[in-house]
Amino acid sequence: MRYKAMIVMVLVALTALAPLFGTGQQEGPSASTGTTSGAAAGTVSAAKAVPVELRVLVPQSPGVPEGVKAVADKYMASNPSVTVTIRSVPFNRFREQLQVMWASSDVDDIVMVGSPDIVNYAFYGALMPLDDILPPQERSQFIPSAINAVTHQGKVYAYPFREAASAMFYNKQYFALAGIEVPPLEKPWTWPQWLENISKVRAAVKASTGKDVWGISFLSNPGRGDFWLTPIIRSAGSKDSPTYRAISADGMTLSGFADTPEALGAYRFYQSLYTTHKLAPTAEVPDAFGTGQSITTISFLATANDLKKNFPALQWGLMPLPYFRTPLTHTGDFTYAVSNKSKSGAAAKAFVRFAGSDEGILAYIGASGSNMVSRIGFSDRHPEFYAEEHQKFFSRILEKYGEARPTTPGYVLYNSIMGFNLFLDLAAGADVEQAVKAKIKEFETQVRNM
Length: 450
Known about the structure:
This protein is an alpha/beta fold. The chain folds into two domains: about 20-165 and about 330-400, D-Maltodextrin-Binding Protein, domain 2; about 165-325 and about 410-450, 3-Layer(aba) Sandwich (D-Maltodextrin-Binding Protein, domain 2), CATH 3.40.190.10. The chain has helices spanning about 1-20, 65-80, 95-105, 120-125, 145-150, 170-180, 190-210, 225-235, 240-245, 260-270, 300-310, 345-355, 360-370, 380, 390-400, 410-425, 430-450; strands at about 35, 50-60, 80-90, 110-115, 150, 155, 160, 160-165, 165-170, 215, 295-300, 315-320, 330, 335-340, 370-375, 400-405. The protein has a six-stranded mixed beta sheet. The longest helix is centred in the first third of the chain and has 20 residues, at about 1-20. The model is unreliable at about 1-45 (pLDDT under 50).
């Protein structure tokens, strides 16, 4: 209840601040901390160009401030009339800081925002459309899900940049005990096939070692979060069906999308992993996969790096996510957006366009480390950053199966109700139809009161 109250308070605060987002007020004095001056040499003559200062607000997420600083340095070397100031705030305070900043007359010109939040901020008028720097004819350079995630009412409000995707990690030694080969990327298992094979692996581990192991675990147990779990439900529908879309086009209605017969069947299957088959833990199991307590886990690229560092003896591999009818993985990560009240909109857009280019991405990755990106074929053009097999695998997963998360102005609310609370209730054994119906009603009531 405390978490739900917090979400409602955030939405109320956003509603109260909405009239202030698009007023076009001028910025106040710029902050003096974290500024890096442009280089003396560049493509723009400092004597002729009007000096411009741009301010960029980023979260203190690993590698992000360092990466953006490298992009800024690269840009300023060719544009000496531009000075870029970078301001970072703790990740857990970032959304709060955005609201405070946009409600004031002293705004940061550019913000690095998670793609699922873009429609929310565009809905409230906080962001400037970017169709002039990302016209329709150039959008095919990006994976479709990246464009879909930053589009609101036909306009693009952020420049796609980083991406995420999920895959299934598996314990190679456990699979070898059962003599089972994993499916190729091009032909994932269905969830029933996964269940059959994992049950065999689990029995083989028990027979060989005497250990009882879980069939599947998540970063947090029981599983939770729209990014991780909603693809299971969406996969039960054919592409572009209501089940696959998960939510109405305006992001306000779940009835007829999240409660179709196909969706309810997928919810029942998920619940059975906890209740009937007892393959998934109902309480937290720290490092379940890394410590060999779980046969598989659903996670993202960062987990591969963590396993190599903290569990070097573990023999693991990757397979695509299982599905019911249509394979998919959710995508989305940081994007560049421009504050609607920026007094330097044109200059901010020019920087954002550079930051999202191959040259800007190379500068970012060179300072922050490899990441998946929204640009199609980037990993092929720059294989030096994707030399390891797990990096290549995630890049291929992203391009082949990537799908934007359900887009709604109330994504924080959606993730709380449908991504967290619903799946936690199902793992605890709640009646599927009643739980889904109740959560749909809760979301639709609250989102329409935004």
